[in-house]
Amino acid sequence: MQIIVPTVTLLVILLSLPAAYLFIVTVAAYLFRKEALAANRILEIGVLIPAHNEEAGIVGTIESIHASDYPAENVKIFVIADNCDDTTAEVARNAGATVVERFDLENRGKGQALDWFLRKHKELNHGLDVITIIDADVRVDRNYLREVSLSFSQPGIQALQGYNGVSNPEAGWRPGLLDAAFNVFNHLRMAGPFQLSGTCALKGNGMAFDRFLIEETGWPCHSIVEDMEFSFLLLMNEISVHYNPDAIVRSEMVTSGKNASSQRSRWESGRFKLVSQMALPLLRLFFSTGQIRYLIAFAELAVPPLTLLVLLFAVASLLALTLLHGAWLQIVAAWWAILLFYVVSGQIQRHAGLHTWRVLIAAPLYILWKIPLYLAMAIRKKSDAWVRTKRESEASEPEA
Question: What topology does the record note for this protein and the membrane (predicted)?
């Protein structure tokens, strides 16, 4: 008992750090306002779409770009048909995109495809001001390109992240919960860090860059979380990623457990690997420079995913109720109040629909679903290969 009580006390102290950070970042998100000081100059925009076997959805993505409230003569659409063995290239060309095909089975991946295009096809980008990167299964908001142009019309902006949302939140409890999660992670956790430090993380979809910047850097990040990796590269080079919550793209979320598990486990295993690589360097940079942006980036990386954090809070709460008393129990109660404030604030700030609010009661099921994912990630062989996630709109066999 002499060892157990101090250990539980230390655990409560350590878990109070992410709780405090989430409280601070939530308050900061309420104070965030997008930058719009200068008039929109209507820039020349290239829309870059990396695609791997996306024949079923690529036309819809291209059509959503054509339907944008933005002058068509100021937009070019490029599709990278990467290692495709279907008709992605053909249907994209027929839909009006410029298509380049890449075949390299030894260097497979979204990051590799982007890097290849940016380094080998610079002539296609001639005359552009901005290059925005979207996934092949998204639908861009009618005002997406106009908002991207507005952001880059502001002085000093070289990199931008828009809001990446869910297109089918009412398709089931999983898409509904993911909509709620995106409202938190893809908005609140963008707006708050930017308000605190002047930069935020890239999310891989709905990103945009000054053409000269992205041509100079290429896309040297090739892991399964290449967007986060590239965020740190920009951070190290003191290039801020700005956030525009009105530049909106929406992705279809899967409802089947099998497809969702595959998608999330790949991403989260890559994220944990990046934590081991970048956490200490970011802390060293903070202590050596005193710049808050490095501390915020460390916190964004180090704070566990919400589901894992809830599980840690639950275990620690049970131990605290058993072994501790007084102010320690008040601290534990504060964790849960902060989590509620954090999740609800994301929905308020993004004006969540009624269905999303309703399915939040299914959150315990989502947490139970993810427990085996964490166990599997601990023992499964890691892979950086670009594995396409099956879309909900595609035909599939019924699950048992």
Answer: Multi-pass membrane protein
- Which pLDDT score, from 0 to 100, does residue 394 have? 54
Q: Which domains, ranges and CATH numbers included, belong to the chain? A: 4-31+274-379 (no CATH), 45-256 (3.90.550.10)
Average pLDDT, integer, range 107-131: 95
Cα–Cα distance measured from residue 171 to residue 173, given in angstroms and rounded to the nearest whole number = 7
- Centroid of chain to Cα 148: 17
Least confident of 97-101, 145-149, 382-386: 382-386
Rounded distance, CA 80 to CA 258, Å? 27
Instruction: Please state the rounded mean pLDDT for residues 127-143.
Output: 97
Alpha-carbon span 343 to 393, nearest angstrom: 28
Nearest of 99, 97, 115, 96 to residue 107 by alpha carbon: 115
Whole-angstrom distance, CA of residue 235 vs CA of residue 171: 37
Pairing state between β 159-166 and 207-210: antiparallel
Distance CA 215, CA 121 (A): 10
Residues 246-292: pLDDT tens digits? 999 999 887 665 555 555 555 566 677 788 888 999 999 999 999 99
**Tens digit of pLDDT for each residue in 181-205?**
999 999 999 999 999 999 999 999 9
Q: Please name the helix (run of DSSP H) or strand (run of DSSP E) that holds residue 166, with its range, or none.
A: strand 159-166
- Tokens encoding 164: 């990446």
Q: What whole-number distance in Å separates Cα of residue 259 and Cα of residue 246?
A: 29
Q: Is the pLDDT of residue 387 over 90?
A: no
The answer to whether 63 and 92 are in contact (CB under 8 A) is no
DSSP code for 170: G
Cα 358 versus chain centre, distance: 24
Q: How far apart are CA 262 and CA 396, in angstroms?
A: 15
Q: How far is CA 360 from CA 40, 179, 180, 184, 352, in A?
A: 38, 10, 7, 13, 11
Closest CA relative to residue 53, chosen from 397, 400, 394: 394
Residue 189 backbone dihedrals phi, psi, to 5 degrees: -80, 5
- Phi (first) and psi of residue 167, to 5 degrees: -90, -20
In whole angstroms, give the CA distance from residue 83 to residue 70: 31
